[in-house]
Automatic annotation (TrEMBL):
<dbReference type="Pfam" id="PF12697">
    <property type="entry name" value="Abhydrolase_6"/>
</dbReference>
<dbReference type="InterPro" id="IPR029058">
    <property type="entry name" value="AB_hydrolase_fold"/>
</dbReference>
<dbReference type="GO" id="GO:0016787">
    <property type="term" value="F:hydrolase activity"/>
</dbReference>
<dbReference type="InterPro" id="IPR000073">
    <property type="entry name" value="AB_hydrolase_1"/>
</dbReference>
<feature type="domain" description="AB hydrolase-1">
    <location>
        <begin position="5"/>
        <end position="54"/>
    </location>
</feature>
<protein>
    <submittedName>
        <fullName>Alpha/beta hydrolase</fullName>
    </submittedName>
</protein>
<keyword id="KW-0378">Hydrolase</keyword>
């Protein structure tokens, strides 16, 4: 499970919490695993997961979106 930057037990990482930055964090984590993953996104994490899957699905084996805002 990923803990988003500056949330949970993670430390604040500067001021850049943009969608682009958080997608980059997710993509770096997935690339590090080097194996297919099944994404489950909740709330804003759902938006991050959905946008990541739309941009680069090479390591995505499945996606579950129980709750996410619309992607614009």
């Amino acid at each position: 499970m990923i803990v988003r930057r500056g949330r949970g037990h993670s430390d604040a990482q500067g001021a850049d919490y943009s969608l682009h930055t958080e997608i980059g964090d997710l993509r770096a984590w997935i690339d590090h695993l080097e194996q297919p993953v099944h994404l489950v996104g909740w709330s804003h994490g759902g938006t991050i997961s959905l946008e990541n899957a739309a941009q680069d699905a090479r390591w995505i084996s499945g996606y579950l979106r129980p709750c996410a805002s619309s992607v614009r």
